[in-house]
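User: Run a structure prediction on this.
Assistant: Running it now.
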Amino acid sequence: MKFNILSNPSNLKTVRQNIKSFIQENKLNTLDELNIVLAVDEAVQNIIRHAYSMNISQAIDFDLSCSKLDLTIVIRDYGVQVPLDQIKSRDLKDVKPGGLGVHFIHSICKKVDYQHVTDAKGGTLLTLVF
């Protein structure tokens, strides 16, 4: 399943609905739907905040696929490429709100892979495997 949204936070609802529908349509009931939605939601919020600096009119593309064992969600943005070594959670001992999205993503996913895209459109490709 492929779909795209604009980087307006109001579109997160569409992302959540599409993921839930895909899981249900493909009978992936052994997967934890709520945690998958949480991980993707956190990833998209990070894209909106960091790659697009809250610009609400930028494209975010999604490609969902599944095998017998895994659900793979590939998310592509066309924004600022954050250095890959800077994509990390804050120290968990630093108790304060926010900054834990990357921690949640890594805790929930079987595999997480960030790649900078080198074509003319740029951006980052995030692959999440559940």
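The chain has one domain: 2-129.
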